[in-house]
Amino acid sequence: MPGLVSETEAFGETTLVVDPARLVDACSHLRDELGFEMLIDVTPTDYLGWTAPGVSGYIGTPQGRNLNRPMTQGLQSLPAPKPKRFSVSYHLLALRSGAPRVRVQIWVDDGEPVPSVIELWPSADWFEREAWDMMGIPIEGHPNLQRLLMDEDWEGHPLRKDYPLGGEPVRFSGGE
Amino acid sequence: MATVQRPPAQRDPIYDGSRIPKPIPTVLEVDPAVRESGDVLTVNFGPNHPSTHGVLRLEIDLSGEIVVGINAKIGYVHTGFEKNMEQKSWWKGITYAPRIDYLAYQANELVFVLAIEKLLGLDIPPKATWMRMLLSELNRIHSHLVWLGTAALELGAISMFWYTFREREALLDLFELVAGYRMHTRYFQTGGLAEDIPRGFYPECRKYVEWLPKAIDDYDALLAKNEIWEERTRNLGLLNRADAVALGQTGPVLRASGVAWDLRRDDPYLFYDRVDFTVPVLPHGDTYDRYRVRIEEMRQAGHIVAQCLNRLERMDGEPWIVDDRKVVLPPREELQTSMESLIHHFKIVTEGYRVPEGEVYVAVESPRGELGCYLVSDGGPRPWRVKFRAPGFAALEATATVVQNTYIADLIAIVGSLDTVMGEVDR
């Protein structure tokens, strides 16, 4: 497959990590040769602070359970580091028996452009606009890359980990 | 009786070649020649319009009464569910999931719980799985009833609205009987059900599924051969097979375009491979076929519910939730006697249970199509990332394709036939 970096199986799901520059090649191979004719979903994820202890209630150590910390249940260890800050996952589905699914994943840093797959699947239109709006993934080659859910003049990308919850100013309160 | 004049494109359904607008698939631009004629009027339809089923805004370009350009704008009820769920522990997040969609709440609840269970690797007791299936199917009936009532109401069939809401009311009573809430039940819990199935539910539910086919016959008698209904739905809102697949359509919209695809049959989850049902598929891809598919799905859902009841009635006394104290709250009576149980209870309520690191995508067939949930866990008590793949979101992407060259009066019926709930679209 063009641009394939790694292939992993976890929880019964296949994840194909591909080179962002060759995303369109990889996707057209999957669509035309392997029959994944439906783009189900595009999901960006922000991994800022992923391995920092304490971010998500972490009390473990990279080695796992720390006997000197009585709160640990034995499940905890620091998660495996990720190659870059953002992942973008493309969930593909083939409409044939067994419903094969595959997750195409690319890794990018902040501001690194991601090629659009809108030419392959028109349904990518809003999914990619949402990725830009919510996570600030610049999609290259999208004909109409505007904000989708937030206002046009909104600042910031709300689903980023450094975007505060409840941090926006509240109108019509206090001295109005 | 005078026949209604259709715009030419509607008399000959375009089935060869794609109708998806270029270059932007979700925006229908006005043809420059039509624009030149100076006869184009731009109308803002919504966001507050009773027929948009929420707050959807459509920017429509009209030439006379014919829609020649359309641009759907969403985001008016964006409430940041996904961001909020990242801040809550896994089990508190279950409360959020059903509120994303006020008609198919149990489907949302189910997909979130199934995704957590996939990460945890939990095996669910059969009784809980059968009950989840039963409630999902009742919820499918619920969602289709509201759709049918409002869709008919939009075309002037007011009595349909009262009939479907009568059946819906009986359904809400059933949900209340089980979970204590009429809507947003939060009855599915990681590992099974939140509580045992109450006595008296089975006979009431049985009564309902025996009554339902008669009610559906009544709806059919009112609409299926109704000349006005046919006139306003047949050959309108056309979506052909290839376009439906390219636009990521799922559920009744896809099945009404001639694609035999249903996750319950083709990728069975729960116990759908152990029950008998058929998947209705119709070829024309118009509003009428979408209506027929949903009517038939209601019948099939009632059929599945009856089969679930047959199993459940023989499962009295079986566990309804998995016995894993690291994930599931201990029984209330144990808290008085067992220190261990008290600690577990305290830990789960305050800190939440921990879910192994990983990412999963789980999909179920909601009343609207493929409802997916993508979860990333860092191994902690809170999700790192939650994403709901809403079928209504994809369905609205098809707006520009399905409304081409229709009358503005039909626009309401066509957009309605995509069956979107804005809460799930905007999340």
Can you give a write-up of this model?
Chain A has 176 residues and is α/β, with parallel strands linked by helices. Chain A has helices at residues 23-32, 124-135; strands at residues 4-10, 13-18, 38-46, 86-93, 101-108, 114-115, 139-140. Mean pLDDT of chain A is 81; it is low at 55-61. With 427 residues, chain B is an alpha+beta fold. Chain B has helices spanning 8-11, 32-36, 81-87, 90-96, 105-120, 126-154, 158-179, 201-223, 227-233, 241-246, 251-255, 263-266, 287-312, 339-350, 391-397, 399-402, 408-417, 422-426; strands at 27-28, 40-45, 57-63, 66-73, 188-189, 192-193, 358-366, 369-377, 383-389. In chain B, the strands form three sheets. Chain B has a four-stranded antiparallel β-sheet. In chain B, helix 4 packs antiparallel against helix 5 (105-120) and helix 5 packs antiparallel against helix 6 (126-154). Chain B starts with 7 loop residues before the first helix and ends with a helix. Residues 1-14 of chain B have low confidence and may be disordered. At the A-B interface, strand 3, strand 4 and helix 2 of A face helix 3, strand 7, strand 8, strand 9 and helix 15 of B.
Number of helices of chain B: 18
Main β sheet profile of chain A: 5 strands, mixed
- Unreliable spans of chain A: 55-61
Q: Secondary-structure element sequence of chain B?
A: HEHEEEHHHHHEEHHHHHHHEEEHHHH
Query: In what range is the share of β-strand residues of chain A?
Result: 15-25%
Low-confidence parts of chain B: 1-14
Largest interface: A-B, 53 and 56 residues
Q: What shape does the CA trace of chain B take?
A: globular
Number of strands of chain B: 9
Percent of residues in helices of chain B: 40-55%
Number of helices of chain A: 2
Question: Could you give the order of strands across the largest sheet of chain B?
Answer: 1-4-3-2
Give the mean pLDDT of chain B: 87
Give me the strand/helix succession of chain A: EEHEEEEHE
Form type of chain A: globular
End-to-end distance of chain A: 60 Å
What oligomeric assembly is this protein in? heterodimer
> Which structural class fits the helix and strand makeup of chain A?
alpha/beta
The total of beta strands of chain A comes to 7
Share of β-strand residues of chain B: 5-15%
